[in-house]
Amino acid sequence: MAEEMRIVLRNYGKVDPLNIDTYLAQGGYKGLEKARSMGTADLIADVKKANLRGRGGAGFNCGMKWSFAASAQADQKYVICNADEGEPGTYKDRLIMENDPQTLIEGMAICAYAIGATKGFIYLRGEYPFLVDTLNTAIAQAKDKGLLKDFDLEVRSGAGAYVCGEETALIESIEGKRGEPRFKPPFPPNIGLWGKPTIVNNVETFANVPVIVEKGGDWYAAIGDKAYPGTKVFTLTGDVNNRTFFEVPTNLTIRQLIYDFGGGIRDGKKFKAVQIGGTSGGFIPESLLDTCIAFDSMSAIGATLGSGATFVMDETRDIVDIITRIAGFFEHESCGKCAPCREGTARVAELMEKINEGHGSAKDTTLLNKLGTVMSYSCLCGLGQAAPAPVLTTIKHFEADYAAKFK
Ligand SMILES: Cc1cc2nc3c(=O)[nH]c(=O)nc-3n(C[C@H](O)[C@H](O)[C@H](O)COP(=O)(O)O)c2cc1C
Question: What is the CA radius of gyration of the chain?
């Protein structure tokens, strides 16, 4: 396999997740110590300078987000780690939490210090119950050592809804309500959990923070792609020789992920498509494999970097059948709060089933194009906005696969 660059997975296999001393022996909590020796304004300026952008999918500048919460006036502020990881094919956050939970806790404690928060939550994917004990043990050990000072941290388990990964639905869920997204603005850094300034960051985002603080924003900003620096953890699945995970600088190409790390397509077959970023990621054809994996280059081709889930399909895969299953997933996961998503995901699923069963025509793909475009503009949250991407990109790049199913 090609060379990795490990920042967030730097301690993978080197520390015992249930023994904080092994983390301390690797230099753990030096970042927090340094952060506390800096003024909060300098600390946030350095994280901004690193240009660390959210690893949960939206790619927002982390330091900038922190600065909004830091400048908000309130008697209570919160830090939330989004560990919902509901994206099919993604398990990068689990890797971090089950192997090196202290990195996440240290990153959250640095954020709490930066914005002036005294309470934090790790919102854990409902399907990861085995991680509750690991995280609770790690938090208790950090508290016992006096490392967290006045920062109180608690684990909350989700109930297994995909939409609860959306930050405002997640906040509703912690508040004990049904997990539905809120209207934005206001954004959580101003009005978040129980109406208080709240930072929500992904596990991988927080895991970068201790190293950035220790080595400095300039060091981080010089790694990988200029506009989306640092590394990204990818989880590679589907028809590749190595179904695995790896952490690489952000200036690689999609082709490098599949061939240098994935070892190419299985059983000597030909490549057909790759979907990156999870279920709502666009489908990418062979002609675009030399695209850089960084956030903005991916957006420019109508694809996403998203969570880094990378699903490779060989020449034998039935694209229309795969898209039909994906459409069913979104119909099921739509929370139903807004009409464009509630109705749109159901109609997309209906049309895809019709085409997949051989009863469709070119009129249906025209309709799907219109409907998908309207949804991408009008849905309340990212679930409905991104749900049509697989349909739209396959109609564009794999038109022949649809035509082959027309009656
Ligand atoms: C339907 C949906 C699901 C999401 N699921 C996750 C998730 O599982 N984990 C995550 O970190 N972000 C998820 N997000 C993105 C969050 O809303 C938010 O942008 C992110 O937690 C912010 O953290 P970051 O800036 O560190 O990426 C999801 C968004 C949507 C619309």
Answer: 21
CA of 380 to the centre of ligand 1 (A): 15
10 Å Cβ neighbour count for 12? 16
Give the largest Cα separation in the chain, rounded.
70
Q: Is 200 in the pocket of ligand 1 (CB under 6 A)?
A: yes
10-residue averages of pLDDT along the chain (407 residues): 91 97 98 98 98 96 98 98 94 97 98 98 96 98 98 95 97 97 97 98 98 98 98 97 97 97 97 96 97 95 93 98 98 98 98 98 98 98 97 97 95
Nearest residue to 100 (alpha-carbon basis) of 43, 60, 160, 142? 142
For residue 362, report the distance from its CA to the centre of ligand 1, in Å: 35
Which residues fall within 8 angstroms of residue 373, CB to CB, at 6 or more apart? 388, 392
Q: Of how many residues is the chain composed?
A: 407
DSSP state of 169: H
CB 139, CB 173: distance < 8 Å: no
- The answer to whether residues 48 and 198 touch, using CB atoms and an 8 Å cutoff, is no
- Domains of the chain, earliest start first: 20-221 (3.40.50.11540), 231-314 (3.10.20.600), 319-403 (1.20.1440.230)
Query: If you write DSSP's letter for every residue of 50-104 in order, what string do you get?
Result: HT-B-TTTT--BHHHHHHHHHHS--S--EEEEEE---STT--HHHHHHHH-HHHH
Q: How many CB atoms lie within 10 A of CB 184?
A: 12
Secondary structure element (H or E) that encloses residue 122, with its range: strand 119-124
Tell me the CA distances in angstroms from 12 to 70, 98, 304, one per residue in order. 32, 9, 27
CB neighbours of 9 closer than 8 A, spacing ≥ 6?
95, 96, 99, 100, 233, 247
pLDDT at residue 159, as a whole number: 84
Question: Cα angle at 379 between 377 and 383, to 5 degrees?
Answer: 110
Q: Where are the beta strands (DSSP E) in 291-330?
A: 309-314
Residue 202 alpha carbon to ligand 1 centre in Å: 7
Strands of 181-261 (E only): list them: 198-202, 231-238, 245-249
Q: Which two tokens stand for residue 246?
A: 């790896």
Q: How many CB atoms lie within 10 A of CB 391?
A: 27
Residue type (1 letter), 99: N
Ligand 1 contacts CB of residue 202 (under 6 A): yes
The Cα–Cα gap between 366 and 369 comes to 5
| 107 Cβ closer than 6 Å to some ligand 1 atom | no
